[in-house]
Amino acid sequence: MSAPTRKRRWLTICAITASAALVAVPAGAASGKSRKPFGARELARIAAERDTSVRALSPQAKAEDDDGNEADEIAEGADQYAEARTSPGIVAPGAYGAAWTSLTHLPGTGGSWRHVTGLPYDSDDSRYRDVDSNSSGGSGKVTGRMAAIAADDDGYVYAGSAGGGVWRSGRGGGHWKPISDKLPSQSTGALALDGAGRLWLGTGEATTNADAYLGSGVYVLSHPHAGTFSSRDRVGGDELESTTIHELRFGGGKVWAATSAGVWSHSTRTPKGAWKLEYAPNPDYLPGGPKDDDPDAAYKNIANDIAIDPKDPDKVVLAVGWRSGDDYNGFYTRVHGTWTRITGGFGDLPTDADGVGNVTFARSADGSRYYAVDQSPEQLNTNPDSGLEGVFVSRSGSPTGPWTRIADYKGLAASGSALTTAGYMPGVQAWYNQFLTVDPSDPEHVYAGLEEVYETKDGGSTWSTVGPYWNFPFPCWKIDPARQTGDCHQTPHSDQHGVAIGRYHGRSFVYVGNDGGVYKRPVNGSQDASGHATDWTSLNDGTIDTLQYYSVGVGKDLDHGGLSVTGGLQDNGQSILRGDDKVMGSNFGGDGGDTLTDPADGCHIAEEYVYLAVQVTQNCAVNDGSWVTDPDKATSYNVAPADNTTGEARFIAPLAADTKDSSTWIAGGRHIWVQTHGYAIRSGDEWKSVYDLGAGRTATAVAASGGTVYAAWCGPCNNQGFARGISVGHVGDTSRTKSGGGAGWHDISLPVDATVPNRYLSGFAVDPKNADHVFLAVNGFSRHWTEGPGAGVGHVFESTDAGTTWKDISANLPDVPANSAVVTPNGGLAVATDLGVVYRAPGRGTWQRVGSLPAVAVLQLRLSPDGGTLYAATHGRGIYAIKVRDCT
Q1: What is the DSSP track for 339-360?
Q2: Residues contacting 475, CB < 8 A, separation 6+
Q3: What is the model's pLDDT at position 79?
């Protein structure tokens, strides 16, 4: 099947999100590519409504045809993010746990990390209403993706993030504290409170998206109002290590876990004892089975939810299946002690493999109703508008039905949705976005989450889109900087994942978790004439930082003093923090990839969107929105090189400035592109292709110093024939030499059995004193964990002859994916890994752990303009900084 690709529309709040580290999307998982990122359909429609000539705008705002959609881009980003960590083989369970143990035993450096982004992040900051911003969309203050929510009747709310751990509020939301920092996994799959008030945590996010990490099992906290999770709280043994956990359900004295390795159960009376495997449809593919090294093993036992009959806890229905379709997809129940596929008698809810994908159940408190959301593999693969099969109810209260459909995507689109155009309608990402809950006091009052939040008060006869995707399509929207979103009300961020209902000061609230954090409203809240809620509140008050950065840029703030710090984010655009800011703003929307910031002027910024789409500004993209009626007032420009249009670049493609000349930029797709106009570039035509890596190859890392350019590539990049290499040349040279040559552009000879492993090459660090002296960071795990051709060992390599030969300098470095590196002014080397930052001091051969970050991925490192401070872009806990002089 081919993966859905999303286009970046103007003012797009997107979600790049399949499982990161060890679960890769199968080769068939859809990859149609739309390459026209900025401006397109949404801007054209808004402008047309206002009789404005959009087609006269600068290139990034021109209306363009685009047949892709966000769901496709999410699936493709998933594939590529996983490739970096898995190819050329399947990674064995336990890799991350072993790496974390190794990391915590490293000697530490001096100094401590300073939290840079620990303050509110306003996605509607009125300073940044330029052409490529989402400001005025209505999401307000945001943070990183929330995968699960739990809440009680005493005002305590628990938010489980995708990569930044679990957070607690004792005030009905806000004033958050992290409570899982001691665990070896900060990726949340499920949160649930049992009847005794204990908090259960299933680690390993199960949204099957690009940056979802595997977990280390299930933990239970007996006193969640005051306690914090520790490794001692783990339930059972290591049976659920290196899995994802979609849901935790309770019944018959057991806790049930729907995981990526089947359905398991454990007694709720004691955390001791092993988990019991209840059902796995293809056990041969589980770890230790005869097919556990099959490339598709990670997709052969995916379970999504468990429904337990409240009248008979022995009557259980399992929802099992891979979102994109497999023969084993379906519902299962026990018949004479044997798990058996349900083949009929379910009513409207399909039971065939093509009709059952990602499923979420919810039961009413009185046991009179069961509800379900079903994503259909057939719809995903054939319907460009939606992958949703529907929302269903069992009015018998039994999970065995009969089930009646109470909503489909067309009905939800007509309920006040912001998603009413062909190619992107409710449920288009139903494999990624799902939640469902029932008001404890009313079995007919239901909240359902897809890309938006929907509410029914009559059991599904009528629906309202109480949380629309954004406010741009509605007549109430205005770009006026004096207002957050014109006359529209606050709406939660798009892409819903978690939901809970709790009470605070005697009032009931619904809490939702999505790609922008946590929001709440009264359970019986108010709506306007369109059915949109008027009473959402963002709970992302700055005390919680789960922002998922891909990059960080630092430059002097000439207007306000100090430094300007920017960074590209998963589904939260690009953040910008000026020297005197108390609140961060967002000056570019969508998904932020790599970023370049002029060290001499922090308002000179290049931000990358997916597939090497690049836009640039020279005033921080400060704009009051007047470009809507006067196109000449736009202050950011689309300057994507041609590989963006042809689709020959990776989802997150490499972009770098020459360390000796900030006006010389290098970008990598199939070609290596150079432009020498710096931040004054205004058109993609100003890029020059200096080297063609070859058909089927795409750049994974680029770096330049004094004109010498290093480019790493892969192709094919997945498990089927994975290959990698390095090309070296000069910015002003387009001549070619044979492999291993010195002058001109050439490929370095890196045979599979060479020192450098046959794994994903993720980053270069060039010695600022000598361009021939370069370091290489290698992603993935060593052959101890990966069984693939040439997987090799090591994660950091050094060359003193411009890449002709390499030496493994990994030494005592933990066996963990390495993402990037930077040479510090004193000659030290800092490396960003999936579990934190390590440092090799000048003249030493071994590594130290820098500070004590939680088990969070660090994807990029940058130095401050004076070289004295090291900045780390974490993918789940924001941006941190530490003085280089303290790393000794």
Answers
A1: EEE--S--BTS--SGGG--SEE
A2: none
A3: 73
Question: For the chain, give me the number of helices (H) and strands (E)?
Answer: 6, 57
Beta-sheet strands, E only, within 545-594: 553-556, 563-568, 574-577, 584-588
Cα(870)–Cα(825) distance, integer angstroms: 11
Classified as helix, coil or strand, 725 is strand
594/554 Cα distance (integer angstroms): 13
- pLDDT category of residue 8 using cuts at 50, 70 and 90: very low
Closest CA to 591 of 151, 139, 134: 134
Rg (the chain; Cα; Å): 26
The arithmetic mean of pLDDT across residues 130-157, rounded, is 97
Query: What does each C-alpha distance from 803 to 6, 452, 627, 776, 828 come to in angstroms?
Result: 37, 50, 47, 9, 19
The residues, any chain, with a CB within 8 Å of residue 666's CB and separated by 6 or more, are: 654, 655, 656, 657, 658, 672, 673, 674, 702, 703, 704, 709, 711, 731
Compute the average pLDDT of residues 209-214.
76
For the segment 863-882, the average pLDDT, to the nearest whole number, is 98
What 3-state DSSP class applies to 263?
A: strand
pLDDT for 73: 63
Please give the full DSSP string across 814-829, using - where no structure is assigned: -SS-EEEEEE-TTS-E
448, pLDDT greater than 90? yes
CA 340 to chain centre: 35
Q: Would the CA dihedral through 649, 655, 660, 661 be positive or negative?
A: positive
Looking at the DSSP assignment, which residues form a beta bridge with residue 158?
A: 150, 168
* Number of neighbouring beta carbons within 10 Å of residue 769: 10
DSSP, collapsed to helix, strand or coil, labels residue 74 as helix
Q: What is the pLDDT of residues 693-708, one digit of tens each?
A: 999 999 999 999 999 9
Dihedral sign (CA 398, 403, 409, 411): negative
Residue 75 or residue 213, greater confidence: 213
> pLDDT tens, 170-208?
999 999 999 999 999 999 999 999 999 999 999 999 987
Q: Are 815 and 780 in contact (CB under 8 A)?
A: no
